[in-house]
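Deliverable D5.2: sample structural annotation.
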Amino acid sequence: MLIRRPSDIRSSEITDKKLYMDRRGFMQLAAAAGVGVLAGDRLSAAPAVPAPHGQKLTGIAKSPLSLTTEKPASWSALTTFNNYYEFGTDKDNPADRAGSLKIDPWSIVVDGECNKKATYAIEDLLKGQTLEERIYRHRCVEGWSMVIPWVGFPLASLVKRFEPTSKAKYIKFTTLNDSKQMPGVRSTVLRWPYVEGLRLDEAMHPLTIMAVGLYDEVLPRQNGAPIRLVVPWKYGFKGAKAIVKISFVEKQPLTSWMESVPDWYGFYSNVNPAVSPVRWDQGTEQRIGEFVRRRTTLFNGYQDQVAGLYAGMDLRKNY
């Protein structure tokens, strides 16, 4: 019999205790417009339309760009198993600590190489946007993954509105940095505020969205309310949450994880099973709610849609 010591087991092979025990049942959840209650749904049984937990969004179109028929994760899994280091490094910290985050009013500063520099109220940014449900596969570097029914609109529509100049080659996203509301930013795990970035053509791709909802409801605070980035062919940490600044820049921005661990996290962060950080094997993944690992696919399964963005690039070097 093979006996493995705890030190022999990678973190990606360990099923999270919360998923194993599935005890979260009813808990308080502050949705973006108020406080709701989680339904005690099983993590492995995602309803087609969950019970209401917060403010419902209306007039949502079903997007043909979902590109997956996989069943989404349950509401409880999506809202209690999160990476959001501003609230702590444990997966349940965001759900436990984000409820008091003040998200109304909310504004976003737009600056850099564009013609429409200003500070925009989020209500103004949402005017005229058509909200769509996008069911996307998401991959996390630690080896787990989810299928998530986001509600959002194409980032390209905002980019066009801000009129980037010919000097704009990249977009830099800066997130909220408030130690009074976000206890995690008192730690030194990263340099705050959290910064992410995309090449301009990545930002303009129709799969890239700004999400404001989840399961046809207002985005919960622990999932990045009131507005966050979603790029489905990249690892999940590229999805900057609680965005407060969008900058059009000429040079590639230094993102938070690049600065922290450059050998592990490159600027592109495209899902590539052939490239693994030091601590994790990216060749397989485990869906939340499942106990059998599956093979990871290039670009998280969106190869047909996005491979052209990286034609001629060495995807091992440009990870």
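Annotation notes: The chain is about 15% helix and 25% strand. Residues 1-49 have pLDDT under 50 and may be disordered.
The annotation will be released with the project's public dataset once the embargo ends.
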